[in-house]
Amino acid sequence: MGTGPARGDSRSLHGGRRRPRADGAPAGTGPGRLVGGGRSGAVKVRGEGSLDRRSFLGKGFLLPFSLALPASCGREGRLSLRRTFKALGTEARILLEGTSRGALEKAAQAVEGAFRKGEALLSPFLPGSALSRLCREAGRRTVPLGPVLGELIGASRRAWERTAGAFDPTVAPLVRAFRLNSGGRIPTKEEFLQARERVGMGRLEWDPVEGRIRFPGPGYGLDPCGVGKGLVLDLAVRAARDAGAAAGLLEAGGDLIAFGPTLFPVGLRVKGIPGGVAALFPLGERALAASGLLERVVRAGRRELGHVLDPRTGEPLDPEDPAVPLTAAAAAPTGAEADALATGLLVLGKEGLAALEKVPGADGLLVLRDGKEGFRLERTRGFPVYRKT
What is the CATH number of the domain that holds 219? Predict the structure, then answer.
């Protein structure tokens, strides 16, 4: 097959017209300083220069540890401990607080162990993981789910319902068809249609009471990349609490979760903004996840494909489409929920903010192109921005 439609063409990769979007803004140019928006819940960023993937650091939401605690002391007389290690294909960073150095060391070991356990259970890249075994077997028979896989399916199902299908982990056949994890390609129309026929969370035969699941047939699968990292953060928080940590902030690949009474400052960093931090957010007893196309694209011939698919159309998001948000972030009570809702919000765009207003404990924020003036932030009413620079 060819390289697909030319940039700016409204046709999809496989001949049909793309679904019109309510948030179709013109292509943006330049990051700059943050100024007040015209209405409640919107903040506009204006500036000069070129707006491209290199204008943002990572997923946009990063933990500036220099804004958190000194290395040797904590709050209210507590001790603090920091660790950095590799996990889930990225760098994990943890900051724990407590009253005992021994308890903090134990908690740090427990957190790292939870990351290792989560990766062993949920990684789609490990043939021996529980998720890989499930995907191989559930098309032929009913498969019992352990507690962690059951939690993954439950969180995915809720996010699928709350985003009206904009988040759906059953896109695994399409991920394979487009080879989004291995170099990228444009599938033939027949390959595309066959893969799309096997997408749909509602098609799975899931029994949450008995803890078991079955796929409708062979060729189905689950892609945990929009929810698994958040779930592993949830497992790590439980491990830290059980080991005696009083509070903490855990981060993996731009996804964050905080627990305990401490409010941690978390920053939105944008290259070109004075000081590098566009806004600060107090994060406590909550998770924050971000999803965006700026830091990761896949090339297929002359085309660039986003690594996130729209389950409703079956096609990857177009990183050059001015209607697609640059970054979407969601805050929620759990890491799994925040992770999944951020992915769904990226697909939905501005209409997703209205959907998140209806989700208990959840909030969202979008970084959107804003014509020649740069870009703007739009958020739900409860998203806790408490300082803009």
Answer: 3.10.520.10
